């Protein structure tokens, strides 16, 4: 595979963002002495995104989905088409700082590195939106910590282990991405797919990092305004969390998680969160696809000869910082 950087940007109606974000991507790539390219994968936008790119950025490669397919499919299409061995998967609403890539290549000197994400802060402020995380169990549920940092910033110069790479700025090894199967398209149209990909990578023996010194800026979405749209988003999010648990929990933990679905549904009904029933129905109707995802993981795990549990991943990450003062 050719050494270099491919920036893959999934897009849906993002023309209003391009004038703010694309110049920062171009500038960041100019600071890297490596071959590079930018690929925008358009997911059937109804605005003039494609025409804008063709006019203002003719050097950008454009891939157009035939049907609106959601994040997982769109990201997979772009990464598979990437020319180079390292891929930055980048949201269309993220701006890069000029030296964004300066500290990221060192992680790939380690042969088991799957990827690294940078520090995501606000569009106009320094508030951290997404950072390093570790997993834990709450009962039978898989939970994720809040962003964790070390009090002494000097100790973060070599990065922190992180449970997952945000799909907003994941710099990944393309070969390993393809090896473990890419994003699970069962999670389309959006949410939780980046967590599941990262968890799968960890369980198959790879590692994910958070680099505090690589800064990018993210504009928080304000597009979801209607109640019906918010309910739909909540429905998909809850369904996808169910997919995550059903695919990755094992043994007693998995049995207990299934047993608690009904009482949890009753609680949601009594608190008038009716969308949860729709989530549960969608989850149950996809049981065949869930089982197929589990089988694919089992096959890949046997082929690679590794199978880490969520508990083992938690202990590994926490052991790396146990002697330090942690900020959550």
Automatic annotation (TrEMBL):
The organism's taxonomic lineage, starting at the top: Bacteria, Pseudomonadati, Bacteroidota, Cytophagia, Cytophagales
UniProt keyword terms in alphabetical order: Glycosyltransferase, Transferase
SUPFAM superfamilies linked to this entry: Nucleotide-diphospho-sugar transferases (SSF53448)
Organism: Pontibacter cellulosilyticus
Entry similarity comment: Belongs to the glycosyltransferase 2 family.
Protein name: Glycosyltransferase family 2 protein
GO molecular function, one term: glycosyltransferase activity
PANTHER family per UniProt: GALACTOFURANOSYLTRANSFERASE GLFT2, RHAMNOSYLTRANSFERASE WBBL
Domain Glycosyltransferase 2-like: 6-136, 163-283
Top-level lineage group: Bacteria
């Amino acid at each position: 595979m050719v050494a270099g950087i491919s920036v893959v940007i999934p897009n849906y109606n993002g023309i209003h963002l391009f004038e703010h974000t694309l110049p920062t991507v171009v500038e960041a790539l100019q600071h890297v002495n490596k071959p590079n390219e930018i690929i925008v994968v358009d997911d059937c936008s109804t605005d003039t995104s494609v025409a804008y790119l063709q006019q203002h950025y003719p050097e950008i490669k454009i891939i157009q989905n035939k049907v609106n397919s959601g994040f997982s499919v769109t990201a997979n299409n772009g990464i598979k088409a990437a020319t180079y061995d390292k891929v930055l998967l980048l949201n269309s609403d993220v701006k890069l700082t000029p030296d964004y890539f300066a500290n990221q290549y060192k992680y790939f000197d380690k042969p088991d590195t799957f990827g690294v994400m940078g520090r995501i802060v606000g569009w106009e402020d320094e508030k951290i939106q997404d950072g390093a995380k570790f997993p834990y169990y709450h009962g039978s549920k898989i939970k994720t910590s809040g962003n964790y940092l070390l009090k002494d910033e000097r100790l973060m110069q070599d990065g922190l282990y992180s449970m997952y790479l945000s799909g907003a700025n994941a710099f990944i090894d393309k070969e390993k991405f393809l090896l473990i199967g890419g994003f699970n398209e069962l999670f389309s149209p959006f949410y939780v797919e980046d967590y599941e990909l990262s968890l799968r990578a960890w369980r198959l023996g790879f590692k994910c990092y958070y680099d505090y010194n690589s800064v990018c800026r993210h504009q928080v979405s304000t597009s979801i305004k209607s109640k019906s749209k918010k309910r739909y988003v909540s429905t998909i999010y809850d369904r996808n969390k169910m997919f995550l648990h059903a695919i990755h929990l094992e043994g007693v933990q998995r049995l207990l998680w299934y047993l608690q679905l009904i009482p949890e549904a009753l609680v949601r009904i009594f608190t008038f969160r009716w969308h949860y029933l729709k989530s549960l129905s969608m989850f149950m109707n996809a049981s065949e696809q869930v089982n197929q995802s589990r089988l694919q993981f089992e096959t890949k795990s046997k082929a690679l000869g590794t199978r880490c549990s969520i508990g083992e991943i938690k202990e590994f990450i926490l052991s790396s910082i146990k002697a330090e003062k942690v900020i959550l």
